[in-house]
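Entry type: protein chain
Record version: 2
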Amino acid sequence: MNIQLYLWADFNESAFKLLKLLDGNKIPFSVQTFKDESLDNISDVVGEKVRRLPVVVVDGENIGGYYDLLEFLINKNVINYDGKLLCQKK
């Protein structure tokens, strides 16, 4: 699973929650941050229209934000409802 986070350089609460969820469960991900870019320029980087950050893209599909990723990982049986890793995948 290839997880890409697009975040503002000045992390907000949602960004910290995303980082804690993924890093705390040792789920690999990459991050691209933006400081002063316009949402139009960020949309060009992401590859589709972006209205706000953070944006989570999994395997090329825009998942959404923190709660969307949480639901996605639960539905894929990666984590449980408490946000804990179900099993370590190699």
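Comment: The first helix runs from residue 13 to 24.
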